[in-house]
Amino acid sequence: MTEPPAGLDSRQAIDDQASAFVARLQGEIDETGRQAIYAWVAADPRHAVAFARMEAAWEAGARLRACPPPIEDQAANQDAPAPPLVSRRALVGGFVAATVVAGAATATWRYTRDVELYRTRLGERRVVTLSDGSRVHLNTASTIEVAMEKRRRRIHLVKGEALFEVAHDATRPFLVDAGSARLRAVGTAFNVRIRDTLVELTVTEGVVAVAQDGGHALERAAPRIAAGDGAVIRSGAVAPTVLNPDLLRQRTAWQDGVIELDGETLPQAVEEFNRYRDHPIIVGDPRLANLRVGGRFEVDEADKFITALEGSFPVSAITTADGSILLVVRS
After folding, report:
1. Contact of 45 with 13, CB cutoff 8 Å
2. What is the pTM of this model?
């Protein structure tokens, strides 16, 4: 198989090479050739972006080719020349532009490693034991991709929340990517939760290093979060936080199927229960936004929480036609 010449780094050259590789993967190719393509994708982020773009274009083009023209147009087009390839590219251009960023990250994982996928449904929790003996506790509606390599162990927390119990192996660092965060541990335990605007880290054992400035390298100067502490990460910025024992327990209570509330606002409490519900609870009156609540509930005890809420505060819960629950101020 032809490899790109050294120093060939223009966008057009990379796009051409990516296009050729995508086309080659559609036909007969031996494992050596396949691995060479995957190595090229992994060698440079620009390669991954180009490969994802070309693969998306190929798949979209295949879908277009599979769709016949409308019946009323078939007769008119019967003797017409085939449309040029550039027209098809124009049709899929919008689709490619919308997916290239997400596709590039996925391509790096999907095409360069033997990746195992684990996920939980809404309301489900499970424990996954990895081949090195590490254990991953997955919370509700969570997904991870696992790539166990010779020199490192890589986990991609795609969405949701997970607690990692890392088997000690000084020769193979344990890396977790989650949103804009990259975390590294050798033998430790830590909890990672992807929220709407940030990533929340809680360390229960050992030490976890956090990459800064959105970079992928974990230098010696990277912030290190010790057991009993945490951090919030957003767009590469790392803000360490000191956690008291109660907050530490609260953040990991989900492993026991429990939601612990200790002075959270009503919207914050509702958010926790909604993680496990098909039909959400909705705070329907802004006057309730600053109401603070407490208590310990099973993750499936939203009804018990609402009953306690109505008994302690001037709140009414109304079940709507779609099954959601609307919280309003009691008349």
Report:
1. no
2. 0.67
How confident is the model at residue 315, as a pLDDT? 96
Contacts of 60 (CB under 8 A, 6+ apart): 91, 92, 95, 96
- Give me 61's structure tokens: 């083009």
Q: Is 42 buried (19+), middle (13-18) or exposed (0-12) by CB count in 10 A?
A: middle
Give the pair of three-digit tokens for residue 89: 């590219």
Question: Which residues of the chain, if any, have pLDDT below 70?
Answer: 1-9, 31, 45, 55-56, 58-113, 212-221
Which run of H or E residues covers position 48?
helix 45-66
Name the amino acid, one letter, at 76.
Answer: A
**What is the C-alpha separation between 88 and 307, in angstroms, rounded?**
58
Closest-CA residue to 54 (of 117, 111, 116): 111
Tokens representing 313 are 């505060």
Residue 289: helix, strand or coil by DSSP? coil
Looking at this protein, which amino acid is placed at residue 189?
A: A
pLDDT in tens, 38-71: 778 777 767 877 777 776 676 556 545 445 444 4
* Packing angle, helices 11-25 and 31-43, rounded to 10: 150
* Nearest Cα to Cα of residue 141 among 122, 157, 117, 158: 122
* CA dist., res. 113 & res. 321, Å (int): 47
pLDDT at 216: 54
164 closest CA partner among 193, 142, 135 = 135
CA atoms 305, 306, 308, 314: torsion sign: positive
For the beta carbon of residue 192, count every other beta carbon within 10 angstroms: 26
In this structure, what token pair is assigned to residue 215? 């970079």
pLDDT at 25: 79
